[in-house]
Write a structure and sequence with these properties.
With 372 residues, this protein is α/β, with parallel strands linked by helices. The protein folds into two domains: 218 residues, 3-Layer(aba) Sandwich (Aspartate Aminotransferase, domain 2); 124 residues, Aspartate Aminotransferase, domain 1 (Alpha-Beta Complex). The strands form five sheets. Strands 2-10-9-6-5-3-4 form a seven-stranded mixed sheet, sandwiched between helices. Strands 8-7-14 form a three-stranded antiparallel sheet, with no helix packed on it. Helix 2 packs parallel to helix 8 and helix 3 crosses helix 7. The chain starts with 7 loop residues before the first strand and ends with a helix. The relative contact order is 0.17. The model has no long low-confidence stretch (mean pLDDT 97). The chain binds pyridoxal-5'-phosphate.
């Protein structure tokens, strides 16, 4: 194990034993079926549908391509309302489809799109709402659904952070018209690079099937202007291996989260995500908000003291997407003050399946005392 001077990064990819992966890819060598929806791909779609509790899964080469293809499949027009407090991919996918993103502020406790602020952003040009279950913190599903239905809008979720989350027993990917997941190496469940759309709309699944493969709908028939968003057999094989271990990996993450909560809950000026009733979470991230006026130290000071101890938390998602270079001047983040306040205070602490209990103790000591 090479852990360069034992640096603790914000995350570390889960991996199966090398032998398990070698066993899984053996038949790819024999069949030479390397990509184009081969048997591993087929099996992974089926196993994921069961695991996620959703009717249809369409695999993609990444979470981002899943979202870009989903938006294009739905033929959206005009404006799409989303949140600035997300990974830039969410907004890029809207813009790269020729649509205009409109930023809705977030709720100060769940950090997800605030339904109270959503309705007044809806115009004649709005075609869809794209909320994000950021950190696996779940949006107000009922109110989102109600607003989308009343205004006849498409409701699609960016569930990149919410793999395996269940709400009152239902898979998170079964809400709204469709959801996307990311299976990037840094996510809770991964296929190295990869992603998926989940939906109960079978005609949407069929359209995505063609779109991600250049629009090919049958031998010699190309009915759509598609692209290439296919997941290959090696990625699917990694997914099949990782899926066997996902429950154990999440359980290890749960233990770290309990330890973090033990040390940090009730500390004035350190805001933790509230547990959401009825939600079985996936322990994907452990974000804390540092309120300097109460805690005494700023988020950046806390971050620096951790980094000088070779611990590397991340300021996800700071700056807000609307403040990033490519969007600067086009939006005013003062219109989303809650999101801005969270971006200024947030720090995602290291969290992954192999994180040691003593490391969590040490990280919390440094946060609280400024040193080890
Ligand atoms: C990771 C992520 C994506 C993109 O997924 P990739 O698999 O990296 O393409 C989209 N949205 C959010 C919120 C993400 O965190």
């Amino acid at each position: 194990m090479e852990e360069k001077g034992r640096k603790i990064m914000v995350t570390r990819s889960s991996m199966p034993e090398l032998q398990e992966y070698m066993d899984e890819i053996k038949d790819i060598w024999e069949s030479r079926h390397l990509t184009n929806m081969g048997p591993k791909h087929q099996r992974l779609e089926e196993e994921l549908a069961l695991y996620l509790g959703v009717p249809c899964v369409s695999l993609f080469s990444s979470g981002h391509s899943a979202l870009e293809f989903l938006i294009s499949a739905l033929g959206l027009k005009g404006e799409v309302i989303t949140t600035p407090f997300t990974f830039v991919s969410t907004v890029h996918a809207i813009v790269r489809n020729g649509l205009q993103p409109v930023f809705c502020d977030v709720d100060p406790e769940s950090y997800t799109m605030d339904p109270d602020k959503l309705e007044k952003l809806i115009t004649k040009r709005t075609s869809a709402i794209l909320p994000v279950h950021v950190y696996g913190s779940i949006c107000d599903l009922e109110r989102m659904d109600d607003i989308a239905t009343r205004h006849n809008l498409r409701l699609i979720y960016d569930a990149a952070h919410a793999f395996g989350v269940r709400v009152k027993g239902k898979g998170i990917g079964s809400f709204g018209h469709a959801s996307i997941f990311s299976f990037h190496a840094t996510k809770v469940f991964h296929t190295i690079e990869g992603g998926a759309v989940t939906t109960s709309d079978r005609s949407l699944k069929e359209k995505l099937f063609c779109l991600r493969d250049f629009g090919i709908s049958g031998p010699g028939a190309i009915d759509y202007v598609g692209g290439n968003g296919k997941m290959n057999e090696f990625q699917a094989a990694m997914g099949l291996c990782n899926l066997r271990h996902i429950d154990g990996e999440m359980e290890k993450r749960r233990k770290s989260v309990m330890k973090y909560r033990h040390h940090l809950s009730g500390i004035p000026g350190v805001q933790l995500l509230k547990e959401q009733p009825g939600v079985e979470t996936n322990y994907a991230y452990f974000p804390v908000l540092i309120h300097k006026e109460i805690f005494g130290k700023s988020r950046d000071e806390v971050c620096d003291s951790l980094m000088s101890a070779d611990i590397f938390p991340r300021k996800y998602f700071c700056p807000l997407v609307s403040d990033l270079g490519c969007y600067q001047g086009k939006f005013d983040s003062r219109n989303t003050p809650i999101a801005r306040g969270i971006a200024e205070r947030v720090l995602c602490l290291p969290l992954y399946a192999g994180l040691e209990e003593e490391d969590v103790d040490r990280i919390c000591r440094i946060i609280l005392n400024g040193k080890e």
